[in-house]
Design brief:
Blueprint (H helix, E strand, L loop, with lengths): L1 E3 L2 E5 L8 H11 L8 H11 L4 E8 L8 E10 L2 E11 L1 H4 L5 H15 L4 E7 L4 H10 L3 E2 L2 E5 L1 H6 L12 E5 L5 H14 L8 H13 L3 E8 L4 E12 L4 E6 L3 E2 L4 H21 L6 E6 L3 H9 L3 E2 L11 E7 L5 H6 L7
Helix pairs in contact: 7-8
Length: 350
């Protein structure tokens, strides 16, 4: 248990998990949706995911008794930027917001504390565009977060029905595999070659990307997938992470932006097709079918075009409400600090 001011937090366990369904249902109603889970199913799915994917903490306030007032859920993640935390859910009960202040700040205090203890490079999350202006003010001014140039696609159609077989995108000379340590030398050579000769060099050095690839290979929650041709030439690669959504109560896959190692536009889109086809199969084989979320760099027009061929939809908090489209925010570098963490401690009233 972590205690600060009038707030304290406890990790969800087999005993206090009974409080979680009401909080998740409250979050669903807040976003004009409905939580369809049950406590037995939630307990089964969470306990399975918590070893080791899910991190969920219940938030309490001393003046509100022994019933939690909210929760945060986050996942360890590895991306091209290093290791970090991805905040999946943060929720404070609506009736509490009108009675006490600072619960949201305390949730981010806990998140930054976990990032500091884990020596993380970043904290990221997504937020609906139709949130109150005060939400974005809090993110940008109080905790030093900034908008991330990635867009999130919901690939539910692919997850349920398979990859759409667009004839020009099917290249039988390409194959996709989960990378292991034996692939790192070839991947390094491909990155070095492309950064030296390619028209659009990657904004990261081969040393940094290989270091992060090795982290992902050794990580309990992450992987690296490479797409190569018959001759072994690597055409693209990307990091993926398992993540657990309390809202959906199932573990799914979040794919970080796939990085091209070819200047051939068609070949890149063929590599995307092959990668998506493989990851869809991986999701089903490993039971990570809660969701398939795919991140794309905002300026990657070829990837956006490919997502459209696969019925990808910009991820939304509320069904059929484009105003609730999710955008990504993040904290990194100097803002992951003890001073920033401590500034988020709600002041205790006398």
């Amino acid at each position: 248990m972590v205690s600060t001011s009038d707030y304290y937090a406890c990790p969800v366990n087999n005993k206090n998990i009974r409080f979680l369904p009401d909080l998740i249902d409250g979050q669903a109603k807040h976003h004009h949706s409905k939580f369809r889970g049950t406590l037995p199913k939630l307990r089964q799915d969470f306990l399975k995911a918590s070893a080791p994917t899910a991190n969920v903490q219940l938030i309490y306030h001393r003046k509100m008794g022994l019933t939690p007032i909210g929760y945060i859920a986050y996942n360890d993640t590895v991306t091209e930027s290093g290791t970090g935390l991805y905040l999946e859910d943060i929720f404070v009960a609506d009736h509490v917001r009108h009675q006490i202040r600072g619960a949201g700040s305390y949730g981010f205090h806990q998140l930054l504390d976990a990032a500091i203890r884990g020596n993380m490079n970043f904290v990221q999350w997504s937020v609906a565009m139709n949130n109150e202006a005060s939400t974005f003010y809090f993110y940008e001014k109080k905790i030093g977060a900034s908008r991330i140039d990635k867009e999130l696609y919901d690939m539910e159609h692919v997850l349920q029905n398979g990859v759409t077989p667009v004839l020009e995108l099917i290249n039988t000379h390409l194959s996709v595999k989960r990378a292991d340590k034996s692939d790192l030398a070839a991947l390094r050579a491909s990155i070095d070659r492309y950064n030296k000769n390619g028209r659009h060099p990657l904004p990261y050095s081969a040393d940094d990307l290989i270091k992060r690839a090795e982290m992902a290979i050794n990580h309990h929650n992450a992987d690296v997938y490479i797409c190569r041709d018959d001759r072994g030439g690597i055409k693209s690669f990307g990091y993926i992470n398992s993540n657990y959504s309390t809202f959906r109560t199932v573990t799914g896959i979040k794919v970080e932006p796939v990085m091209a190692l070819t200047d051939d536009a068609l070949e890149y889109q063929q590599a995307l097709w092959a990668t998506m086809n493989e990851l869809r199969d991986v999701a089903h084989k490993t039971g990570r079918t809660g969701h398939l979320v795919w991140a794309v760099k905002s300026n990657d027009s070829l990837a956006h075009r490919f997502m459209n061929t696969q019925n990808g939809e910009i991820l939304q908090m509320e069904a059929n409400n484009v105003a609730s489209a999710l955008v990504m925010y993040g904290i990194k570098d100097q803002n992951i600090s003890r001073s920033k963490r401590d500034s988020l401690i709600p002041k205790q009233k006398p």
